Amino acid sequence: MNKQQLFEQIQRKKSFLCIGLDPVLDKLPKHLLKYEDPILEFNKQLIDATHDLCVAYKPNTAFYETRGVKGWSTLVKTWQHFPKDVFTIADAKRGDIGNTSAMYAEAFFNEASSEMSFDSVTVAPYMGRDSVSPFLSYEDKWVILLALTSNEGSKDFQTKQSDDQKLYEQVITTSSQWASSEQMMYVVGATKPEEFQNIRRLAPDNFLLVPGVGAQGGSLSAVCEHGLNLQCGLLVNAARSIIYAGSGEDFAEKAREEALALQQEMEQILTAAQLI
Ligand SMILES: O=C(O)c1cc(=O)[nH]c(=O)n1[C@@H]1O[C@H](COP(=O)(O)O)[C@@H](O)[C@H]1O
Question: Range of 104's domain?
Fold first, then answer.
């Protein structure tokens, strides 16, 4: 999916919500345990109940890898269940020497090889240009590069100053030369709203993937104050607050209610910004 198609989907659905599919077997509603693949059933029902309210889904691969071969198969089948109009993010935080990154890129982008073809993958910038460029060789596929993450430990390296710039600022400035805003997004945590003005100065046109609303306490309105751009430019992710909104047979309805509340807030924000 290209940038214009993503923006059109945002306008059509009046939403820039990304739902994180991070399922843990122990937290699933008990009635799903009778299914052969309870996590797949959980994901399918969540997707069916929410896909008109969100523009993206982001399964974090850790939640699948932890279950070995079975988990990977659940990830493939979950990908197969995504409606064609949604933007899909493999949250795998990959990046390695070039020939290894090329294998990671195939794993997430090349359906003939891996039975999955996500629109994007999250990538760590630490190993530099040649570790990121293999992901950029696929048309209409995206790299979502970690810039300023939502966690406490982001202070350990990302906000450290060197050569008059914080490390995350250098990540954005340097990587902007590797790909245009048609192929490069940045991860910026919702827990750091005070940094969005600065980030928009460095990356005015890029989409930002913003995790950290909901369970991590980030505020949607604070993110949007400086985060929006002329094509919205934001994909705001929530996982636990939506997928575990209910724990009974009505879990998908409860998830829908939670997603609807966020979508309605987003619609107001998009209207006020005259983007819809
Ligand atoms: O890359 C990410 O998606 C990510 C980056 C970041 O800085 N913080 C962050 O929470 N995430 C991911 O976003 C999701 C957040 O989930 P919830 O806190 O449950 O909404 C998890 O899959 C995290 O791994």
Answer: 3-272
Model confidence band, residue 155 (pLDDT cutoffs 50, 70, 90): very high
Structural domain count of the chain: 1
CA–centroid distance, 212 to ligand 1, in Å, is: 6
List residues bridging with 186 in a β-sheet: 145, 208
Please work out whether the CB of residue 60 comes within 6 Å of at least one atom of ligand 1.
Answer: yes
Q: How far is the CA of 211 from the centre of ligand 1 (A)?
A: 5
Cα–Cα distances in Å, from 39 out to 50, 196, 203?
16, 35, 37
Question: Rounded mean pLDDT of 161-174?
Answer: 94
From CA 50, how far away is CA 76, in angstroms rounded?
19
Question: Can you give the pTM of this predicted structure?
Answer: 0.97
170 CB near ligand 1 (under 6 Å): no
pLDDT digits (tens, 9 = 90+) for 57-87: 999 999 999 999 999 999 999 999 999 999 9
Task: Using the predicted structure, report yes or no on whether residue 89 has a pLDDT greater than 90.
Answer: yes
The model's confidence at residue 265, banded by pLDDT at 50, 70 and 90, is: very high
Among 13, 58, 77, 93, the one annotated catalytic:
93
